[in-house]
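To whoever picks this up:

The parser on our side crashed when reading a file containing two proteins. I've narrowed it down to the boundary between the first structure block and the second sequence. Both blocks are reproduced below exactly, byte for byte. First block:
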Amino acid sequence: DFLFFWGAVFLVTTTLVALLKKENKELTPTKEETKGITDTYKLLFSIIKMPAVLTFCLLILTAKVGFSAADAVTGLKLVEEGVPKEHLALLAVPMVPVQIILPLIISKYTAGPQPLNTFYKAMPFRLLFGLEFAFLVWWTPKVKHEGGFPVYYYVVVLLSYALHQVTLYSMYVAIMAFNAKVSDPLIGGTYMTLLNTVSNLGGNWPSTVALWLVDPLTVKECAGAQGQACGTPAAAEV
């Protein structure tokens, strides 16, 4: 219902914009960055061939490998250990004001000549949160009781997530500030899009690999079935 309602709203508003919004013909059109799709890709290729850009792309494609598993798998493991999904979803609500305020605070430190300083300073702390999240997953079954989980457990999870958001946004805002700083203003849109796309890809591919490796790297034991291995999903099902 939610998706249907907002889908309808988007369709109606975009249709009204298409029908009712008129272009201002009197303004002098600004110089376009490119003339078409082919020119855009040629321009992107010429940008990415630059040695500095190539090195930077390699760095941001691999920078997030260290904490990909913690980011992608922690929530799923907590659910697997019995934490209700709706409770974890509710914990996202108090995170919203944190996520709004953090970029405003962090932007003061990334506005200078070296925005990536904030990026590399936040990295070791974000790596440490991988250990903290591992401890959290290990600790979860130990505090569970018949009525569910105690309040202090959710307070610890909430604080862990909040502090993790500080490191996450420190890196995110810093990389955005750096991309904005180094992008050539004449082709700013194309340049920024390229760097931000590579940055997003650098966060997505390690998470995908981490999720794919969860099953092969998980040690399982079969209860009540001697001699039966549970290493694969098919064997666990048997």
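<<boundary where parser fails>>
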Amino acid sequence: LIKSIKQTIEVVLDYILETFATSPEDVSPGKKENIIRDCRDSHKAHHIPYNAANTSYVCMLWNDEQHSFDEVINVVSSAIQCSKEHAMRVAEEVDTYGRHLVFSSNDLDEAIKVADQIYEIKLAVTIRSVQTSVREEISGLLLDWLKDL
């Protein structure tokens, strides 16, 4: 039983560390070529097939403790064409959890357009593949699980 527990924890820690090692350090949208390169490299590191034409992308908004709720609400509602109420829920999620997926698309140019609008006021935003983003979410859940152990 102890051996199985150790092996499970090792696998979980490897997964988390591999995921965080390939997560973005720069919280700005970046150029299209860099986003594609980062997604390709991240997928390769995790043994996930990558095809830029068939990949879905997400814009992840990060909490930066520098912008007011009103600033976040205004820029998010403008960038993704949503109601102020929806943008307020996004701002609350970012404040509570540190980040929130604000937009997803199969069109990288569209994701870049949204991210650039959000970044106009220097709000922290990244563009990642859906697969990489899901892997990061799973890592967060695994960290909580380890903490509960």
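After patching the parser it read the second block fine. The radius of gyration is 17 Å. The CA atoms of residues 58 and 104 lie 4 Å apart.
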